[in-house]
């Protein structure tokens, strides 16, 4: 058990700057490398479960609880709340984009159970989190669905077309102003990387129409008003908040 938990903790710590490095052109290679370097702990856990060693399936929940407890202990040792939140967000990202997909891929018999136990154990230690599992194929496919952006999905939910006034205004703002600002291109890239997965997760929810209406009222409608009144900096600030708020709420 000690050797296995060490392997799982090493895997959690292995991904550097997981949010920044989650990109279309690098994710698949990074994920495959993650499996190559850390896959043995996932495979060993499944083998132990299937053989009935150390309590069989009980070991799945025990391992999940140990991982979450060790992370909670680590975060408590950090001096500032801001540091704790940033570190937790990184770990959330590692779980969603590497840990869970690897478990579902390398543990065909017990991976789903293990991920479910991980989500429960994580929620117990960090009640503010709401992690959702996805396979590597689902995440990677999201990168290819370039058409499925948040602004497009919101406008579609409101009965607007792809060539509506609002979308064209936002696209022109993106191309003519935002892309030319400091960090603007990075913000746009970040949005393109996470938007398809966020839209897919929102669409799975029964209240997706309500969520899109809230995004419209909270972010997009005020952004459009800012653009119309020449307040481009204010629009950029709100757009930035939207990207990171939605990432934290629906991507993690």
Layout of secondary structure:
Elements: H1 2-14, H2 27-51, H3 58-76, H4 81-106, H5 111-125, H6 136-144, H7 150-157, H8 165-176, H9 184-203, H10 208-228, H11 232-251
Helix pairs in contact: 1-2, 1-3, 2-4, 3-5, 4-5, 6-9, 7-10, 9-11, 10-11
Short description:
This protein is mainly α.
Notes on the protein architecture:
With 252 residues, this protein is an all-alpha fold. The protein has 2 domains: 2-140; 146-251, no CATH class. It contains 11 helices and no strands. The model has no long low-confidence stretch (mean pLDDT 86).
Structural key phrases:
252 residues, mainly alpha, 2 domains, 11 helices, elongated
Q: Output the structural class.
A: mainly alpha
Please give the count of helices: 11
Q: What's the structural domain tally?
A: 2
Order of helices and strands: HHHHHHHHHHH
The helicity comes to: over 70%
How many β-strand runs?
0
């Amino acid at each position: 058990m000690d050797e296995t938990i060490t392997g799982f903790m090493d895997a959690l710590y292995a991904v550097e700057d997981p949010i920044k490095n989650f990109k279309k052109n690098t994710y698949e290679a990074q994920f495959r490398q993650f499996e190559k370097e850390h896959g043995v702990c996932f495979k060993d856990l499944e083998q132990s479960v299937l053989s009935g060693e150390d309590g069989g399936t009980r070991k799945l929940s025990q391992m999940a609880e140990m991982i979450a407890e060790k992370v909670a202990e680590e975060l408590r040792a950090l001096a500032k709340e801001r540091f704790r939140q940033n570190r937790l967000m990184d770990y959330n990202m590692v779980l969603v984009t590497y840990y869970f997909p690897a478990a579902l891929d390398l543990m065909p018999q017990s991976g789903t159970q293990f991920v479910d136990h991980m989500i429960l154990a994580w929620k117990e230690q960090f009640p503010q989190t709401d992690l959702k599992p996805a396979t590597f194929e689902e995440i990677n496919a999201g990168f290819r669905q370039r058409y499925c952006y948040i602004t497009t999905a919101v406008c579609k939910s409101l009965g607007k077309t792809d060539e509506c006034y609002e979308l064209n205004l936002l696209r022109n703002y993106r191309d003519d102003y935002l892309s030319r600002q400091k960090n603007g291109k990075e913000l746009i890239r970040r949005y393109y990387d996470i938007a398809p997965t966020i839209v897919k997760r929102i669409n799975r929810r029964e209240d997706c129409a309500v969520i899109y209406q809230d995004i419209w009222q909270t972010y997009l409608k005020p952004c459009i008003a800012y653009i119309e009144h020449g307040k481009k900096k204010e629009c950029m600030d709100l757009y930035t908040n939207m990207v990171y708020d939605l990432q934290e709420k629906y991507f993690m």
